[in-house]
Sequence to fold (421 residues):
Amino acid sequence: MTPDAKDTKDAKDGRAFSVGESHSDFAYLYERFPSYVQTFVYREAIEMARQGMAPLLVSIRRPDDPPELAEPLFSEVLYLPETAVLRSTEKLPRLVRWTVPRSMREKDVNRLYAALWLGPRLRGQGIRHVHAHFAGVAARTAWWLRKIFRIGYSFTGHANDIFCAATFPVTHEMLVRGARFVVTETDYARRWLEEKYPRARGKTFRVFNGIAMEGFPSREPAGPVPRIVSVGRYVEKKGFTVLIEACRLLHARGLVFECLIVGDGPLAADLQMQIDRAHLAGAVKLLGPQPQSEVRALLASARVFALACVPEAGGGSDNLPTVIMEAMASSLPVVSTRVAGIPEMIADGAEGFLVPPGDAPAFAEALSGLLTDPPLASRCGARARETAVEKFSIATTARALQHLLATRSSIRLPEAARRVI
Fold:
């Protein structure tokens, strides 16, 4: 059963899009947009618009970033009403009961409410396909859009969203089966999905996340003391406990250095306790979250970038960390681990060094080599920049996604986008 279309403007929906606006017949569907922890998603949307795709931007939730970390909006965004408003919207509760068996709506009914509210509005704007990032809230909403409104969808799977099992009625297998195509950040993740879900074979494609190569300040070391910089959420998979232990080993050798760790998360107190117990307060500092401009300035001041990724006990893992791309674009050598798609970014001994995950002594040894040998660090950093430009330029990666949309979905590319492809 398909609900009747409604007006595209709702008093509760925040920023409403204009019916007269020119856009293609595909939309991005996000859980939350923009978000400072997902800058790669934001950059892709900007580049898609720059290349003539003119996507409609739809976000289920509003941004909740602190003002100093918030990304500026470059286009109008359609925000869905709050869940409580959706649940009280006329007709929607009744449509939920009519449309979906109880067994499928009990655990994830909010996705269904979102789809029932959004579907008529997308149809009214001529949207034929939506693309979601992450196999989560947005992708499950897209699955319902297809089931109820026959609006096609695709999604990009990133890391824990695909590596960790879902417990929702719309499973990962159902998401893969219903999608017109699936994108993953790495060949590692593509193979992982194809092995786990046979329906993924032949419809899953690797498209690297992309970054804009301009805007990185020139290298300017902070001073005579070499600096290690690391960036990421303070969570298990980032391996900060391993990095801090490696710093303890370096400090015990008498090596003078500074290690700055940017981020935020549930392990902040535990990491600070580890630093204090190792008597590293003068050498290792947790800086908390920082705006993008400050992160780039810190990268420019560093001798080496470090990210000691480890697999999580529950199966979660990093896949293609954007911060490594940014470090490479900053001409920094990288020390990281052989986890998931990281070896697709860094060749051991070329752009930096890779060690086994969880091996603090090996991590310390790799850091030591770059900290004590500036010419080696410079050579690896130059190679890192070359690789970043070749593999991770946002102009290249956005064109790859456009090609998939043009060949694997039913959308009509705007003339400006056809000229780019």
In short: The longest strand covers residues 26-32. The chain is about 40% helix and 15% strand.
